[in-house]
Amino acid sequence: MLRPRSVYLLPLLLAALLTGCGGGGGGGGADPSTPAVSPALSFNPDTVRASINAGTSTTLNVIATVARPADLANAAGVLASVVDNNGVLLPNAQLIRDSDTQYHAVLQTAPSLAAGSYSGSFTVRLCRDSACATQLPGSPMQLPYSLQVVAVGQLAFSATPAVALGATAHIGAAAPAAINVAISSEGRGWTASSGAAWLKPGAASGSGNATLSVAFDATGLAVGDYSTTLTISASDGQSATLPATLSVQPSGLVTAGSVTFNAINGAPVPNQVIALDTDDKSSASWSALANGAWLRVSPTSGTTPSTAVLTVDPTIGTLASASYSSSVTLSAIGQASRYLPVTLNLSPATLSASLNSITLGGAYGRDFSASPSLALSLNTVTNAWPWSFGALPTWADASVLGGVVNQAASNVSFSALPANAPVGVSSTLVTATARVNGDRVAAPVLLTINKDQHKLLPSETGVALSATPSWTRLTRTLTVRDNYGSFGGMSASSSQGWLVAGVSGNKLTLTADPTTLGANTLSIATVALTPLDPDAGAPEPIRVALWKGTRTPQANASTTLSYANVATDPIRPYAYLHNGGAYIDIYNLYNGQKTGTITGLGASLGDMATSSNGDYLYLLNLSSHALVTIDLNTQTVLSQIAVDADQATRLKVIRPNGVEMVVLSNGAAYLAANNARVNLPLSGGGTLAASGDGTRLLQQAENAAVVAITTLSVDYAALNGGTLYPARIPAASHANTGTLGQDIAVSPDGTRIYTANSAPKLCSILNPVDLGVLGYLAAGDGTPNNIELGSDGRIYCGAAVKAAASDVWMYDASGKLLNQYKLVGSGKLLLPRQLAVSGDGLLLIGITDDGVATIVPVGP
């Protein structure tokens, strides 16, 4: 009688990589703490992790699998949401239904997060009504997060696996192949630690850029799915945490009465060997017949004692993952046939993507040069299977839309087609699908494009020109840049015949001819730019004013009224002055005459600032705690918004990315277009200064024993309805030399910082990178308390000094002394921060401690 004999494990098992889920161990009984109703959704990844540069926002993707699809039978009535109670996300988190069994969450981190680590949990809800009074069974759920925000200027650190960090191991078989992790840690040391014994980094530490081999060891593990993390930490405090999974599968085996094959569908399936003999050990001829299309036996006949090899082939019949039963009929002459049951257990293969989200357009939606890539892998070892992407959004393209994939990486890069994308943030979940025998296995990837408004940005939006018998400033050249960095040409037109707008490359030259204009008149023109690139716009018109006067100022002129605060117009030859009371007087700097008064402003007034193009004057009304906007074309109040301000609050107008906003020294800021409030990481108050493009904002503490300077990077993009991206720059935010800070200014190109402090008795030139001293500007024996830059590049260092012959020193852009001036006679002191330069750069006005405002001609 024929019988299978010898129970033994089969050799030659091949390991495959499989991404799974679990809690660090497989099998086991029920957790006694499990609630009566298990969570309605399970999340992949189970913890949201990201490393983010300060002042930027990152789009994150989480796949949520529905535990009980029947609960969502009426999905139209289910309102899904993600709740963030800690402000780490922008308020636009979405939980989007993909199917009856899947949702995906689109999360964007808040760009206002300061450098540091953030951890906690988001609350995910499935509600039956808008008020969420009733939730589905298993809702709400907690989605943990661990975010690291990297300071501006800090070297980037990353750890990137070649493929998704996952493996499949069969008990008793060889270990799965190790996976390499590329570590980018220039100039720093690093350490690697695993959260479980089965995940083994090849090195515990290292330095610089390196490749770390990570192995999987299933020794001693029971059948089941395991998950853990690999944490790689840099010596500067940054870290990368990588999720890792291991699926431990049973081996195929032969028992006394059956044969079982356990395999990943699509992976090589090891053969099984059966031993054949008779009970009495006599020799007998036998034959074998496989009773299933997917089952084969070889040889099909022989003489005992002998062995036969059983082979399965899931490609025959294109089997889907499931359990299949068949048998082998064993026959011998003169013997009854016997049937050997054969079972084939096929588990579905796993298609994995090294990244679950890809963002195009960069953090601000203006950089489309990068082509980020991901690696697809399939845990079928060397067997390759066809894969393809579903439909891509019209704004994205892929280097390949399909191919074949196995455990070795199949790389795909993505590129943006920004002309096809709307302004803002657009996200689409695309799916890579592999066809493995009768299975379809998928890897979803969230594609996001950030697209800012494409525009041309002039270096200045307000230009002052002038013509008098002895002085003329009739031409000005501006630089125009494309905020995408892809300048495609432009044309320019002037609204007035006396002004010609000439274009050469990205240079705009404005030339005025005052011949036809009347004497002692102010003429204003508007210059419009037109990009040649149809995708771009030019939303900022350039305002140009020309003063034609019959008198060239030769001597100082002082006011008879007393004042406490002064601001000059960027295009008109006007100064705006108030004495802290209810009105603002307007003076023509060329003739020294008061030309008007703006009234109805409140009993107590504070700091003032003008808009970049001279259209508006912003004023703090301290009596009503309001920020007042005055239309300088009509000299009337346009709006008032409530603010928290006092006499020490300073104002500064900036225009990052061409979006004008008014900044208060307490960190509040208001968009000029709609008065919407945004916030900047400023505290403690102090004088404000900014680069010409508004991307660098500085604050210097006033009258403190230690001169502390804070530097922010600032940007604004038309993403998510308009988003401010501020970040503190640590290397340029610290205590500086000197004491009793008074005033600060920044060169238009942002390459120099100028400060006026009570000590040393010099104005200082600082490096914006680290606040290192680059040089000094002499200020006599006075106490520097004003620093101003003219539109022509000249620098003015003003000091409080009673007896000296000068209290203002004028330098060229290189720091060479050109001239020095005295506002008033001996015995009067220049007030801190009360020196201003006319828009054309030819006149100064300053207020001394007796309240007198003095106009000083400095000329070309």
TrEMBL record:
Q: Which residues form the signal peptide?
A: 1-24
The keyword Signal appears for this protein: yes
Please give one Pfam family short name: BACON_2
- Keywords noted in UniProt: Signal
Q: Establish whether keyword Signal is in the entry.
A: yes
- The domain of life is Bacteria
Where does the record place the BACON domain? 179-242, 280-343
What PANTHER family is this protein classified in?
DIHYDRO-HEME D1 DEHYDROGENASE, PROTEIN NIRF
Q: What is this protein called?
A: Quinoprotein amine dehydrogenase
Species source reads Duganella violaceipulchra
